[in-house]
Design a protein that fits this description.
- The structure is a single chain.
- The protein is mainly α.
- 69% of the residues lie in helices and 0% in strands.
- Helix 1 (6-18) runs antiparallel to helix 2 (22-35) and helix 2 packs antiparallel against helix 3.
- The chain is elongated, with a radius of gyration of 16 Å.
- It starts with 5 loop residues before the first helix and ends in a 10-residue tail after the last helix.
Length: 71
């Protein structure tokens, strides 16, 4: 049975995050938020996941041109 402890989910998410397993970290933070939608730590940590996703997406979608080619 899954834990209903928001602190446990958030801590587990932080562990996954520290191991660069962002997919599992996101699930854990979402579980913590499902338990308490106002839990600031999990909301903050989830925002970090979304920020990283946005940065990576933008880096990968940048079209090469004369200014950003590495030669």
């Amino acid at each position: 049975r899954e834990s209903m402890n928001k602190f446990a989910w958030d801590n587990l998410g932080e562990l996954y995050f520290s191991e660069d397993d962002f997919f599992e970290a996101k699930k854990c933070f979402e579980n913590a938020i499902d338990i308490d939608g106002n839990y600031a730590n999990a909301l903050y940590n989830l925002s970090l996941i979304y920020s990283l996703s946005f940065i990576v997406y933008n880096l990968l979608s940048t079209q090469p041109n004369q200014n950003n080619l590495l030669l």
